Amino acid sequence: MKNLIIALSLFFAVGASAQAKKPLTSAKVPSKATVAAAPTMTNLEKAKKNTAELNAFTPLSMERQAVFTELFTTKYKMMADAGDSADRKQIVSQIIARKLEASLDGETFEKVKSNEALFKSLTN
């Protein structure tokens, strides 16, 4: 009987401590600097924009759109990691261009590459 009571009390103690409690925070009023700053896009939003531009130029299946969204998300992460280094950004652009070439068929890739504005926005 003692063991049963100990087991139940441990069970309830662990269960109670495992529940996450959200700390109380006061409502914060945004500062003027926060309000005045333009909203920046996240890497995922930028990637979705690139995918939409590519999809508008050449129709893509839903699976291919997911693949390109992942590719462009990786591109923006790598560009952010490159910092101010122009050489590293150039290398990332070349990598993305090669991945685009590998992901699209030859004719479609040539059409995308011939549209210089689109190709530059996709790779840079």
TrEMBL record:
It comes from the Bacteria. Keywords: Signal. The keyword Signal applies. Residues 1-18 form the signal peptide. This is Peptidylprolyl isomerase.
